[in-house]
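Hey,
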Amino acid sequence: MTTLVTGGSGFIGSAIIRRLLDAGHEIRALVRGSSARDNLAGLPVDIVVGDLLDPESLIRAARGCNAVFHAAADYRLWIPKPDEIYAANVSGTVNLMRAAAESGAKRIVYTSSVATLGLNANGVPADEETPVSLDDMIGHYKRSKFLAEAEVRRLAVEQKIPVVIVNPSAPVGPRDIKPTPTGRMIVEAAAGRMPAYVETGLNIVHVDDVAEGHLRAYERGVVGQRYILGGTNMTLHEILGIIAEITGRPAPRIKLPHAVVMPIAYVAETMARIGGFEPVATVDSVRMAKKLMYFSSDKARRDLGYSPRPARQAIADAIGWFEAHGYLA
């Protein structure tokens, strides 16, 4: 059986591929021509070049595939040209869903995000049914993923596309090449380059557990349903404490108020637009930090048999990989 994985060279995509290979799937990995392929080195996969905005390339990639895992996404919390993230995450997702259905895929697993979900103001972990609207989405990334998931759900109902949705939280672990925003935070703290922090709350999960959750969603998930693939709810202070214990470096002691950091973020974004580089802090990230992004994976545990490992192990594996690959120098 041939299975297509989009975003196969990425952090989550490459973890999914490794888990599917272990389960006996023959893998076709869709990558862009410009994508680095380090995460696919040595893996027995058929690499095909395509683009989410090129429907013909998607039809070619999906041809003959019984299963499709759509993990490709533009994951940037700051972007100088917002239209690009909506094109990739919304239009590209619709293109992929249609190509997979046209090619006769029997099951599609769509990688959404907890970014699309509602949050409880009192810090109680949110679940798949927590009320939410587009107005609750902070920033273009969250808005684009919210709109993309809405399109996927619509296609599942109106066109009977056999898609199951999974919503990973904040994955960490090996092969975070870019790295992701959460991975970058771990790198800076582990390297001793974080003198201060802004308190927030995150749900930390091992990327390999997210991959396992994808496989279980494929095997056991209900079409049209979504499942949170999370791990442990933690404050940033707690996360930094674990990093300090693992590395032996002192954790940052200065906790900055959100009101102090916000003007810095505005200045950083202005300088980034002028200089053409990514800002060290963004307005949207500071706004998001005010919320406790806590989630419950009870539905996935109950219906899929999902069982993530402790967050400490995920963080330790991430630090080990970053150290082995020179990120902490």
